[in-house]
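Lecture notes, continued. The same structure-token format from the folding unit now serves as the input rather than the output. Read the line below as a description of shape only.
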């Protein structure tokens, strides 16, 4: 007679203001949802709790602004006898909602603290003689966060003006113009090279017909995709205006040119800006979504191989991963876009063409 295997189990570990509340909260936990986002947005956490005894409305009422850390722990999931976990990070509680019929409490938290001035205060500031890492370091410090700067490129700015912008929006725009990604997670700001992560090998394979696929969709579009991007800039030393052109070899020849109107000071800066804007415009030409049996290995910023779907087969980049636990068990929903080593449209060709002699126009 074959030996019976231990069943798969999932549990949620929660630390509230330094105290482990995992066992206390378990009998009341109806659902848990953690969304891991790749760049430009903060991660978020949501708990839904049963509250027939009215505990969460008074004696156990959580404080807005309090910090909560979470982990998803699986047992016998990948292999019998194996315990694995996904650390979701530290979040700040920013919304508490009570409802009745049935009596429930919903607690929402975010990785970008609202109690700081990171994203809720418009500012005016002139940054002179700063590198991107220096600006990011100041912004992180003022928000009570650490900075993790992982990019090899660290642009130097003569001057950058922050005008009626919150710190996070201003920093995100600087990163976007330099083809870098930004993420607020686990009490830190992380800046990294998006294209470098897209080039990593796939960590998992999702094959049509596999039992763990619960639902899926993939789509491709032509709208809002561009064959090339161009930036005009002036060479004051030679009194020449140039056009820096970046070509995307993955888009058909009849595609449009994305014209970028933004002041730059050199050919290198123009090429970097054109490449960044072209990549941003075209990267969601092919997108999709999969809902699968829970998988703690599927997180934002990694690649997966998709097969069995004909022309949609290839390597895809995970933009966000939502890990949900509740009555229906543990599931993971990933939002993906075509990318990774198999993507044909990489950095493309570049050129810098003088268009005419002219005086510098301010």
């Amino acid at each position: 007679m074959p030996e019976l295997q231990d069943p798969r189990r999932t549990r949620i570990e929660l630390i509230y203001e330094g105290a482990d509340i995992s066992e206390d909260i378990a009998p009341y936990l109806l659902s848990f949802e953690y969304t891991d986002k790749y760049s430009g947005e903060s991660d978020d956490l949501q708990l839904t709790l049963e509250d027939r005894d009215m505990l969460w409305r008074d004696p156990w009422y959580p404080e807005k602004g309090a910090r909560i850390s979470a982990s998803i722990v699986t047992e016998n999931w990948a292999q019998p006898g194996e315990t694995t976990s996904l650390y979701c990070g530290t979040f700040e509680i920013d919304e508490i909602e009570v409802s009745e019929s049935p009596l429930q409490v919903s607690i929402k938290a975010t990785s970008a603290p609202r109690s700081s001035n990171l994203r809720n205060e418009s500012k005016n500031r002139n940054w002179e003689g700063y590198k991107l890492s220096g600006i990011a370091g100041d912004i992180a410090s003022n928000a009570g966060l650490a900075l993790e700067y992982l990019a090899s490129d660290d642009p130097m700015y003569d001057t950058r003006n922050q005008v009626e912008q919150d710190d996070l929006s201003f920093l995100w725009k600087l990163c976007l113009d330099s083809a870098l990604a930004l993420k607020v997670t686990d009490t830190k700001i992380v800046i990294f090279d998006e294209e470098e992560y897209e080039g990593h090998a796939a960590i998992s394979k999702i094959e049509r017909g596999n039992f763990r696929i619960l639902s899926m969709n993939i789509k491709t579009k032509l709208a809002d995709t561009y064959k090339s991007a161009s930036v005009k800039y002036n060479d004051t030393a030679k009194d020449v205006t140039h056009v820096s052109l970046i070509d995307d070899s993955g888009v058909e020849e009849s595609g449009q040119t994305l014209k970028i109107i933004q002041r730059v000071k050199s050919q290198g800066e123009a090429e970097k800006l054109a490449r960044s804007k072209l990549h941003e415009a075209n990267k969601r030409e092919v997108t999709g979504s999969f809902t699968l049996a829970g998988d703690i290995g599927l997180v934002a910023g990694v690649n997966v191989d998709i097969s069995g779907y004909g022309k949609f087969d290839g390597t895809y980049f995970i933009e966000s991963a939502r890990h949900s636990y509740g009555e229906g068990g543990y599931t993971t929903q990933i939002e993906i876009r075509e990318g990774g080593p198999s993507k044909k449209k990489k950095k493309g060709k570049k050129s810098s063409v003088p268009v005419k002699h002219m005086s510098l126009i301010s």
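Point for the exam: Confidence is low (pLDDT under 50) at residues 344-362.
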